[in-house]
Fold this protein.
Amino acid sequence: MLSVAGFRIGVCGSATLATLLVAWLVPVIAEAQSGDIPRTASGRPDMTGIWQVLGNAHWDIEPHQARAGLETDPGPLGPVPAQGMVAMGALGSVPSGWGVVVGGEIPYLPQALAIREENRADYLERDPAIKCYMPGVPRATYMPFPFQIFQSESGFLIAYEFAGAVRNIYLEDPGPPQVDSWMGQSVGHWEGDTFIVEATGFNGQAWLDRAGNHHSYLLRVVERYTMTGQDHILYEATMEDPSTFTRPWTVRMPLYRHIDPNARLGQLKCVPFVEELLYGHLRKTPVGSEEQN
């Protein structure tokens, strides 16, 4: 059972949970619009700071129960961790989560849903984050690492701890992206107290979480950042991808500011850490081989 704002709800009741969350968040947002939030000299909400998402969305953005591993094989009494996950023990298992998808379920096209299931069955080989590729949007927001917003009257930049990813959000539209990339191209503008970002120009290789949820290069993401208090932002991202989804859909979650005065954004520049994974097979004497020992 999950407890949200005093309600005890089972994971299976995702639709009910989504309805309750919306009913709870709407008055909170309305109050924040006129509440005491930090502002810049021009009166815009000041989002400068280090932020992080709490919860288990990075494992799976849909509501899910705990399971034996990110990749599993059939067992005599149910799924068991795949061979590559066995050594991880409990650390390789997946904790339950109430999900961040509004409505509970991603509206996949049938062929795209089949790809998602293939991704889950071959997670260790397919998740691009394992190889330290850029996380993409919106996955970068809710990975289990903080990120830092740098905001001025003329600029808005987000630096992420994982893989040293950075997004320079243009405040003037530079035109179509010149090349597709992991993080895409982002253009932002203000609507009242909400900062709205449109991200396009993706290469289609990033995932949305560790559960194999994915998209194509046609993905268009519209993000909404709305401060609901001095140290909280309501984050919403609407995904549209006609080759993957039957309709646009949205994820929604709060962002929490790091209030420790010693907080700093670390740098997990993980490329050197995956060289053995990616290129170890090219060694004359592979690590762990009998020759090396």
Q: What stands out?
A: Helices lie at 14-33, 110-121, 123-126, 139-142, 275-279. The first strand starts at residue 2 and ends at 4. The radius of gyration is 20 Å.
